DNA sequence: AAAGATATACGAATCGTTTCGTAGAAGTCA
DNA sequence: TGACTTCTACGAAACGATTCGTATATCTTT
């Protein structure tokens, strides 16, 4: 339930590319860092044992698939992170993340909508749901 | 520059309480989890070696102090976290953190101000800087 | 069929973090 | 002074994560 950094890397690939073989995942990972094939293999085997990945035998190959969702995992990691790094204050995190990001107007607008959702009383009415 | 989880715990205490002895830090930590005195001692010694903490001898005691700032450290951790968990998308993180937090109206208002700052063009004018 | 490439399985080395036991120095108290 | 407590220092065990070497099986190619 709490993937390590390496495991997260692999999950990222599987989330992005869908079910994949070890080689495909490894190919992808080696683009950004030095990692041997058997290292990726071992990692994915362990993740399979842990129940993070499913595995289907396709002839000689094994095809792996993420068993936990991206958003769900992100939410979990986020909760943990807020606790450890921001002492539980999600707002502090939000402010700091936002302050240092170069958000596009579109993104800000989306965010604006979300805020209006959260706070139907206050602020100028914008659109009803 | 990249404190571990345990180190972060200790930093939190020092940030909150200011310069402290090992015992004071340990006392605080033991309130929330099982940890021996010498464990805390060793950790703080290592952090001192790493340059995370300064140390002043006060008679028989050592008084430790955080050498890195809270916000600065949080920013650093946050950047890293956005990269690894949210593939660099700070906005995705913000939206998700916000969506799951129960923010008070005051907090939302603060956030609103920040957004208006960031996006002077769009939205209703609110206040000039 | 033989050689070579490519798959999985698995044991083990390595590395960083965390934890604690033990020793010795220094202060406190009866 | 002698027993206790309370510091720091330090070595090393324990643990988890990461990495890779090697063995073996299975294809592919000539």
TrEMBL record, chains A, B:
Keyword Transcription: yes
Highest taxon listed in the record's lineage: Bacteria
UniProt cross-references to InterPro entries, sorted A to Z: BlaI_family (IPR005650), WH-like_DNA-bd_sf (IPR036388), WH_DNA-bd_sf (IPR036390)
One Pfam family it belongs to: Penicillinase_R
GO-annotated molecular function: DNA binding
Keyword terms, alphabetized: DNA-binding, Transcription, Transcription regulation
Family, as annotated: Belongs to the BlaI transcriptional regulatory family.
Name of the protein: BlaI/MecI/CopY family transcriptional regulator
């Amino acid at each position: 339930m709490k993937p390590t950094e390496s495991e997260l890397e692999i999950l990222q690939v599987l989330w992005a590319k869908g079910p994949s073989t070890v080689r495909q995942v490894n190919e992808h990972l080696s683009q950004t860092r030095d990692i041997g094939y058997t290292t990726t293999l071992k990692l994915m085997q362990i993740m399979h044992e842990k129940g993070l990945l499913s595995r289907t035998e396709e002839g000689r190959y094994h095809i792996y698939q993420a068993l936990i969702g991206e958003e769900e995992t992100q939410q979990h990691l986020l909760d943990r992170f807020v606790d450890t790094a921001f002492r539980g204050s999600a707002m502090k995190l939000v402010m700091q993340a936002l302050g240092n990001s170069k958000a596009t107007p579109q993104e800000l607008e989306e965010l604006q909508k979300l805020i209006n959702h959260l706070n139907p009383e206050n602020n100028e009415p914008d659109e009803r749901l």
